[in-house]
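re: that chain from earlier
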Amino acid sequence: MTIASLYDIYLQHPQVQTDTRKLQPGDLYFALKGASFNGNDFVQTALDAGAAYCIVDEAAAVLNERCLLVAEVLPALQQLALHHRRQFTIPFIAITGTNGKTTTKELVTQVLSARYKTYATEGNLNNHIGVPLTILKIRSDAEMAIIEMGANHQKEIAFYCTIAEPDFGLINNVGKAHLEGFGSVEGIKKAKGELFDYLRAHEGMIFINSDLDYLSTMAQGINRQYSYGTANAQLIGKALQGAGLLNVAVLSSGMETSIQTQLVGDYNLPNVLAAIAIGTYFDMDIDTIKQALEQYAPSNSRSQLLQLGTNMIVLDAYNANPSSMKLAIENMAALQTPKTKWLMLGAMKEMGDSCAEEHKALVDLAEQLQFKEVILVGKEFEGIDHPYQWFETSTAAAAWLAQLDLQEAAILIKGSRGAQMELVLEALKKA
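^ sequence. v structure.
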């Protein structure tokens, strides 16, 4: 079956599904394969659930005329997405980076949606399956498309660009993450820089944080740039002093506007400024941008400020790496509050050979900033000399916390998704 023929079917049945448990009548089912599953084995389940057609790559999975055989399902899904993308002339904005790319994507979406019909990556579906699925959800009424791109190895971003063909792009930062796959920070720069490489080659435009010199180096040769930052930028902003939530002052059209966000931490300032810069570039007035940003409420354990009785919780436990951990700990140290400060830190994953060194650096930072109440969770902290409470699992930490009567505490909960630090939060809720 050709992609053109498959596209004709897609236009009649534009809902695409790869999981039979989520499939609705009339959906197209793509029978993807993975290391531990084969979607071809679930074709009958998909048909019973009302799939309009099943796209398969094994002859044995062709059970009736509603089963369409292709050479390989995943490339067919990706090529279908590319074909769909090429039907649009609207701006396609790609966003990648180490820390905060999902938050940045959410903020940009919030701003642009205040004026334009905007389609964006849902959650963090930013991989080789999520990128094409995101594109295939874009409908004919679209005025803006925002594609988040994640990566844990070289050439990944470059490949996503061949599917999404972005004409605008943003790398919000480059830090230590997925060192197991990249090997070094230079390796991460090279991988994230593949977005700039694509835009440079295709005369695209970038939005760039002028405060990060290395981004300017990575962006050399890209003629179309719109800068944002705390100085020497087309869009200038700063964080206002305060406790808890981030308040931003932004200079626009020669006037200063204050924007009170619902995000925790000054480390979110570049993410907010990126959204303001993109909104401004696309002819949105600052009052509309301000209203959109002030209405945005973070979720999914990202930069959330929670109040539990007399305790204040800074919840940022969706993901973690050395760069984001350092920023969160330093932000906690700078927090102006009479409450007793606690750090509840889950281990970082995919650190490779740097694992022990990076976890030791976190402990050293906590001691340097004179934190007294610290809980460390995960085998990665085992064997590191420190004066703090350590638990091998978040379940054990939660059981210990459940017996405490914490009051008047300001608590940072942060860790990689695999550390399951949400269990610690549940224990605090029950205490």
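The two ends are 59 Å apart (CA to CA).
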